[in-house]
Specification:
The protein has 99 residues and is of the alpha+beta class. Helices cover 17% and strands 27% of the residues. Strands 1, 2, 3, 4 and 5 form a five-stranded antiparallel β-sheet that branches. A hairpin with a 4-residue loop joins strand 4 and strand 5. The protein is globular, with a radius of gyration of 16 Å. The model has no long low-confidence stretch (mean pLDDT 85). The structure holds zinc ion (ZN). The site of zinc ion (ZN) has 5 residues, from loops.
Length: 99
């Protein structure tokens, strides 16, 4: 099922078809999106750069796609894109309703 690469998968970063890996191993990975957070957080020591990317395990069954957020100090948050989309939609509604 997941032999094909997702449309967002970067051939440069994908490890799904690297020779030597098990038949269905590795990970599809998107190009990273770097978000400059210096205008968002003004507190000293706060996150300056937040890198977002998509990832999905490469295997013979259907798997979820995850959003991976990594801060400059390599703190990582990973959540299913379905949940991330819900959180983003709630934040968008909250911000637009209250601004
Ligand atoms: Zn891939």
């Amino acid at each position: 099922m997941t032999d094909a690469h997702p449309t967002w998968c970067s051939p440069r970063l994908c490890t799904a078809d690297v020779p030597g890996l098990p038949l269905h191993g590795g990970e599809h990975r998107s190009e990273p999106l770097e978000l400059d957070m210096r205008r968002v957080f003004t507190t000293h020591g706060a996150v300056e750069v937040l890198t977002a990317s998509l990832t999905q395990a490469a295997c013979s069954w259907t798997t979820e796609t995850f959003l991976r957020l990594v801060t400059g100090d390599q703190t990582e948050i990973t959540l299913p894109v379905v949940q991330a989309a819900g959180v983003i939609a709630q934040l968008n509604e909250f911000v637009t309703t209250n601004s």
